[in-house]
Amino acid sequence: MKEFWNQRYGAEDFAYGRRPNRYFAAHLHDVEPGKILLIAEGEGRNAIFAAQNGWDVCACDLSEEGQEKALAWAKKEGLDLRYDLGDFGALDYPKESFDALGLVYAHFPPHLKVDYLRKAANLIKPGGLLLLEGFAKGHTVYQEKNPAVGGPKNVEMLFDKEEMLEIFSDFEFSILKEEVIELQEGLYHNGEAEVLRIMAQKKVN
Prior knowledge:
Structural class: alpha/beta
């Protein structure tokens, strides 16, 4: 898997463009900047946006090529960006240490998906923000019509609402929906797609 992403991010062009994900960018403005973790952040498009808007950004990914590209971009922009290299399951972050967490097309192998998402949930402070956009299980229909839209081929890596409600049971959802959108993100996300979107706040006990 790491080799796949290194090959994709090793090209000169940005695989998913330089603009941040539209959903992520629109809703990040809804909260006061703090410390944010961006998982499977790739070439850094969302991390750069968050840093430009006053967030203390920590990104992570397993791709050295993605890390190198993101850090070079941050340096060019004069931004401070922490970018940890490694599989998310092996990275050690203190529990409840982030004010916000972003999962933008962060899809995991089926046998790891639930554990990784639960780990992500545990890293958010009470009252903190979860933003997620990823491919929904209904997306396979759109992949068959248009391979250029991208996304994992294994349906078990995709998301559905019931699964998210169970995994993020200690969150209050302001947005939890599956919808069809038009993706225009760089070279590999183009066309009609079915996605799942979340905006949720961790409950304060």
